[in-house]
Design goal:
Chain lengths: 114, 110
């Protein structure tokens, strides 16, 4: 089991462009969490998804950010019209059942907005 | 609102010295508490969780509900313990998203 995969590992965008971050959970895991880490801060929860469903998006900014976890393929975190303040490390975690299981983290995607 | 506070950004000790990484939390109810560790160039991984009461790599942590603390301790630090340590909590029911502290970097010097 290769663990949680995230790509790209590094992403550079200019202001106003779109950023797409992908997360492939561990095999057999159907629950995905996205977290954002700003410099010198801890990880902050953004969104929790199961296959084809958003369970909790209370940590997601209301505008420009969206997430999906389709039946087939990776989970995608999409940031439209990026701004400098979106520069951060974005981590994905997965768990098999969600409610009581340990979350396993990916290596993260470092987004830099120029 | 739930919050996790790790007051020390950096903790530097010598090999063989005791280590205590502090973690305080605020939560209305009984949360589940975790310690995660990130070694250099590696991904974040679970070190221990309070409900399992395990000792992992010589580390232990006791939940003190009266002081709302979950400090991480090890009696004799090793150089390979040098890493970033994050305390986190989650609701025991519901969505299970983790609330993290800002982390403490532990440096163990030879």
């Amino acid at each position: 089991n290769a663990g949680v995969m995230q790509n790209p590992r590094h992403l550079v965008r200019r202001r106003g462009q779109e950023a797409r971050l992908r997360c492939s959970p561990m095999k057999g895991h159907s629950h995905v969490y996205w977290y954002r880490q700003l410099p010198e801060e801890g990880l902050k929860f953004m969104v929790y998804l199961q296959k084809e469903n958003i369970i909790d998006e209370s940590g997601m900014p209301k505008e420009r950010f969206s997430a999906e976890f389709p039946k087939e393929g990776p989970s995608i975190l999409r940031i439209q019209q990026v701004v400098r303040g979106d520069s951060a490390a974005y981590f994905c975690a997965s768990s098999p059942m969600g409610s009581t299981d340990t979350q396993y983290f990916g290596p993260g995607t470092r987004l830099t907005v120029l | 609102a739930q919050r996790v506070t790790q007051p020390e950004k950096l903790l530097s000790v010598f090999k063989g010295a005791p280590v205590e990484l502090k973690c305080n939390y605020s939560y209305s109810g009984s949360p589940e508490l975790f310690w995660y560790v990130q070694y250099s160039r590696q991904r974040l991984q679970l070190l221990l969780r309070h409900i399992s009461r395990e000792s992992i790599k010589g580390f232990t942590a006791d939940l003190n509900k009266g002081e709302t603390s979950f400090h991480l301790k090890k009696p004799f630090a090793q150089e390979e313990d040098s890493a970033m340590y994050y305390c986190a909590l989650s609701s025991p029911t519901g969505r299970r998203a983790l609330t993290f502290g800002s982390g403490t970097r532990l440096q163990v010097q030879p």
